[in-house]
Specification:
Blueprint lengths: L8 H7 L6 H6 L11 H5 L8 H24 L12 H14 L8 H9 L19 H13 L3 H27 L2 H12 L2 H7 L5 H29 L12 H6 L6 H14 L5 H23 L4 H8 L1 H18 L2 H5 L21 H18 L21 E6 L14 E7 L3 H21 L2 H14 L19 H9 L8 H10 L1 H19 L2 E3 H6 L8
Antiparallel strand pairs: 1-2, 2-3
Helix pairs in contact: 4-8, 4-9, 5-7, 7-8, 8-9, 8-10, 8-11, 9-21, 10-23, 11-13, 11-14, 13-14, 13-16, 14-15, 14-16, 14-20, 19-20, 19-21, 20-21
Length: 553
């Protein structure tokens, strides 16, 4: 049979073989394949090119301005209220004791001690008799630095937590910039955390959880830098095509060694400091170790390895574990130096003269192990009921915030300008619209991670899981919603993750602007609840109007 063109179809079939792929068949209908992507850019997506000197400086200028805004909020009237707020009665005193002895001494009953610390002249009834404490020393050393600089008073014991809260906003801006390849979105994430009520309250209170958050976030940032640098080494090792681009290469992905990775070592130090502040920092060590190994698998797969898991097992896994876990352990032990050097620290000489199968281990280390066992027993058996305790299921929806401080100033006193008694409260409550929006954002991230394989979504979800999921294993323990401050940064990153990873800077900025109304509502929510975050006296009716849920009272 002859076609309209005069060519025999049997001859045509012999000369032009039938298309064997969908792409070839679709070309008949005008389909054009996408241009080959450069594997180097897949490994390390480029940052947007700055425009002029102002654009080059924006990568730091924007984050610094957001951090300055956060710092002004956190340091404004930091010494007010002049009171021992919630668990400051433990950590502020322990920090001062560690400055004096290197370990936690003994204080009289808080009802006696707290007024003495706030009196003029001040009385410090501290003795060198060791006391049992339930948390490692690093967070208290951090608080102690502020007390060394500014004295044993509300401003002194809150100074360092306010500083870490401010610096964490700066870090989050830069982390978001690296994660999203967008300065605007990084600054958006930082700004959201600057106006989060829980982060604000915890930054202005001498508790340990903000310290855990800070060091865990620093570790997350270090691992992001390590991810970019290790993938850049793989990209540099790829052979170049004739057109100057690079494609996957089996030998490069399978056999290239990534060399020394100092940012991973820095992450190990930060994770050790997080665990040395409070034990829930250990979960970040576990989750982040798994995360960085999976990042290595993904990098080698993109670079061309046919068996990326095998390549990582042979070349990367051992160094990953050694760079994180042993470094974290050594860092953790180093924070106990004051206890090791003391003679009176609690259980310091428990192992002296004791035999047994572990007698070859130095006595100070065995004594510390015994002390840690006592701490573990205390923490898992802490079942004393508390009116502000809550179940982790309610944390994301702000079911039961914790009241750190509540007074009823009389008219004309302590900032009460009402004709009737006022309410003065510090409520550890996340900014409601921010947290409720973050719940929806986490669902979106699950979609992007599970169905779109967006590594950014997986990274944020991993960090949220590290700070959140372990608490579900302590259903019978007395726990509080303010522990959630450890994963607040990642909720803010979730809220700032707009669009697919390949979206251009302009498109993502448009997406951010389109969400401006929501951001303004979140800012209004923070302003509306600000008196409850900062401990400002307001008329009772105004205070009650802010109790949106009955469980907040």
């Amino acid at each position: 049979m002859t076609s309209d063109t005069g060519v025999d179809e049997d001859v045509r079939a012999a000369v032009v073989p039938e298309a064997t792929t969908w792409a070839e068949r679709l070309r008949r209908y005008g389909y054009q394949a996408l241009p080959r992507t450069d594997t180097r850019e897949r490994l390390v997506p480029p940052f947007p090119r700055p425009r002029g000197r102002a654009g080059a400086a924006a990568g730091w200028l924007g984050p610094v301005l957001v951090a300055v805004f956060a710092g002004v909020l956190r340091f404004w009237r930091l010494g007010q209220p002049r009171a021992v707020v919630f668990d400051e009665t433990f950590y502020a005193k322990d920090a001062w004791s560690m400055l004096r002895f290197g370990y936690e001494g003994t204080w009289p009953d808080r009802k006696v001690t707290d007024p003495q610390l706030l009196a003029h002249p001040q009385v410090v009834p501290l003795s060198d008799t060791p006391s049992f404490v339930a948390h490692p020393p690093m967070g208290k050393w951090v608080i102690a630095l502020g007390e060394e600089l500014f004295g044993l008073g509300p401003f002194g014991w809150r100074f360092m937590t306010a500083l870490l809260g401010t610096l964490s906003v700066l870090m989050l801006c830069r982390i978001g910039r690296r994660l999203f390849r967008s300065t605007a979105l990084g600054c958006l994430a930082g700004a959201l955390m600057a106006i989060d009520g829980l982060h604000f309250v915890m930054s202005r209170t001498a508790l340990l959880d903000i310290v855990v958050m800070f060091f865990a976030l620093a570790a997350f940032g270090c691992l992001l830098v390590d991810r970019d640098r290790s993938r850049a080494r793989l990209a540099a090792a790829l052979p170049t095509r004739a057109d100057g681009s690079a494609g996957p290469d089996h030998d490069t992905g399978t056999y290239t060694r990534l060399g020394l990775r100092p940012w991973r070592l820095a992450a190990g130090v930060c994770l050790g400091l997080a665990a040395a502040s409070k034990w829930n920092g250990l979960y970040f060590l576990v989750f982040f170790t798994a995360l960085t190994v999976l990042w290595d698998v993904g990098a080698r797969r993109v670079a061309g390895a046919d068996r990326p898991y095998e390549a990582v097992l042979r070349l990367d896994l051992g160094w990953s574990v050694l760079s994180l876990i042993p470094v974290a352990v050594v860092t953790y032990l180093a924070t106990w130096t004051g206890w090791f050097l003391s003679d009176k620290g609690y259980a310091r000489h428990w192992a002296d003269g004791r035999g047994g199968p572990w007698s070859w281990v130095p006595a100070p280390l065995r004594s510390l192990w015994h002390y840690e066992y006592l701490v573990y027993q205390f923490n898992v058996n802490l079942h004393s009921p508390h009116k502000y305790q809550s179940n982790p299921w309610s944390w994301l929806v702000l079911g039961r915030p914790v009241s750190f401080y509540y007074e009823t100033p009389q008219p004309g006193r302590e900032g009460c300008h009402s004709t009737s008694p006022c309410s003065q409260e510090i409520l550890a409550l996340g900014t409601p619209l921010l947290w409720w929006t973050a719940c929806a954002a986490l669902v979106y991230l699950l979609f992007r991670w599970a169905l779109r394989r967006d590594w950014r979504a997986g990274a944020v979800l991993c960090a949220v899981a590290a700070g959140y999921l372990p608490w579900f294993g302590f259903q019978d323990r007395t726990i509080f919603s303010f522990y959630a401050v450890a994963f607040v940064p990642y909720l803010c990153l979730a809220g700032a993750l707009l669009g697919p990873p390949g979206a251009r800077e302009g498109r993502r900025v448009v997406g951010a602007v389109s969400a401006g109304a929501l951001v303004l509502l979140i800012a209004w929510s923070f302003i509306y609840f600000f008196p409850l975050y900062a401990g400002r006296a307001v008329p009772y009716a105004d205070w009650h109007a802010r109790m949106w849920l009955d469980t907040w009272i």
